[in-house]
Amino acid sequence: DKEVRAIFLRLFAQLFQGYRSCLQLIRIHAEPVIHFHKAAFLGQRGLIENDFLTKVLNGMAFAGFVSERGPPFRTCDLFDELVAFEVERIKAEEGNPPKMIKHVRELAEQLFKNENPNPHMAFQKVPRPTEGSHLRVHVLPFPRINEGRVHQLLQEGLARSQGAPPATRGDKKCVVPAGPPVGMFI
């Protein structure tokens, strides 16, 4: 799963290399609006006639991508690092499949670590029921729930959570690296 995601991450990083240099911040509204200059992006990369990339850039998914990833000050992630710093590596690996596979595996490992920051947590597996277990008659009915006890536990949990500090990830915002200019990817 992670390797397939890493391949797509790498593909989109290659497709959108230099996109940040074609972002324009328009400040005529109360809140600034980020606009992507499609013609400049396609023209500088020599892909004006490319129907696929033109359709990708005109799609709603790309508009969401620009609005989410356009702000210059936000939390950076693996995609930002690929677009900004791994340009030369990706170019060098184009003709060398073993190196490309190695890079994909490294990316997959990073994706796995991002989703599972604590590798020591054990996940308990629920055993499958044995064959014929549904035919047994000694299964006890589910006990009745004590509404008073449930309400008491909820109130105790609420009281504890109000005094506890909010549980948030430690994502630090930073200036997103622009990476190389678009003209470099012709």
Total DSSP E strands: 4
Derived structural class? mainly alpha
Shape, per Cα inertia axes = extended
Radius of gyration: 25 Å
Unreliable parts: none
Mean pLDDT: 81
Main pleated sheet: 2 strands, antiparallel
**What percent strand?**
5-15%
> What count of helical segments does DSSP give?
8
Protein name: MTMRD protein
GO molecular function, one term: guanyl-nucleotide exchange factor activity
GO cellular component, one term: cytoplasmic vesicle
Organism: Hypocryptadius cinnamomeus
Q: What does this protein look like?
A:
This is MTMRD protein. InterPro entries: dDENN_dom (IPR005112), DENN_Domain_GEFs (IPR051696), Tripartite_DENN (IPR037516). GO terms for molecular function: guanyl-nucleotide exchange factor activity. Residues 1-76 form the UDENN domain. By secondary structure, the protein is mostly helical. 49% of the residues lie in helices and 8% in strands. The strands form 2 sheets. It has a two-stranded antiparallel sheet with strand order 1-2. It has a two-stranded antiparallel sheet with strand order 3-4. A hairpin with a 6-residue loop joins strand 1 and strand 2. Helix 1 packs across helix 5 (78-85) and helix 1 packs across helix 7 (97-115). The chain is extended. The protein starts with a helix and ends in an 11-residue tail after the last strand.
Describe the structure using short key phrases:
mainly alpha; 49% helix; Tripartite_DENN; two-stranded antiparallel ribbon; guanyl-nucleotide exchange factor activity; 186 residues
